[in-house]
Design goal:
Low-confidence stretches: 10-48
Order of helices and strands: EEEEEEEHEHE
Largest sheet: 9 strands, mixed
Number of helices: 2
Distance between the termini: 40 Å
Length: 176
């Protein structure tokens, strides 16, 4: 069974399917691809296991610092291509936070997740970009649990930095 996560942008909600349990192939060659209470932000990637440029990775295995391909409106994807941060890219992963709700907590709803996820990601943004979030230099988008992944215990929010007005980033935003 597959459960989706949602990317929450200013005005657009895009379903992003994560790999789950069950039958079927989860290989990148057969899967579609797309060009509340936080913990501390995750550190920038430094390990040899970080996704390589050009790799197609499951949404739930993105690393902080990864620059990723566009995710089309209303497109279901299971994997996302990692891009070179020195080339145009729409998103860069700035952090990952975990909501504090326990495993038995009820799904808060998309609207509540949208409201709190943006706030939760401000600390990750500041730690990664090196300046407090003001909405004047970059925007924050988020990938949040869906009702199905929440039911399975998913409380992870992935914090994305994007250009203002949906414009592409042309370099890494780490450290400003």
């Amino acid at each position: 069974m597959r459960h989706s996560k949602r990317i929450l942008t200013t005005g657009t909600i895009i379903a992003v399917l994560l790999s789950g349990c069950g039958g079927g192939s989860n290989s990148p060659s057969s899967a579609p691809t797309a060009g509340g209470g936080p913990t501390s932000p995750a550190p920038p990637p430094t390990s040899p296991g970080d996704p390589a440029v050009g790799a197609i990775v499951a949404v739930d295995s993105l690393s902080v610092g990864s620059c990723i391909a566009p995710i089309g409106d209303d497109t279901d994807v299971e994997f996302i291509r990692v891009l070179d941060c020195d080339s145009p890219h729409p998103y860069q992963v700035a952090g990952q936070v975990l909501r504090a709700e326990g495993a038995s907590a009820a799904f808060p709803g998309d609207r509540e997740l949208e409201r709190t996820a943006h706030q939760d990601c401000r600390d990750s943004y500041a730690a990664y970009v090196g300046i407090p979030y003001s909405g004047e230099e970059f925007a924050i988008d988020t990938i949040v649990p869906s009702r199905g992944s929440w039911r399975d215990g998913d409380r992870a929010i992935t914090c994305l930095v994007t250009g203002l007005g949906g414009s592409d980033l042309t370099r890494s935003v780490e450290g400003g």
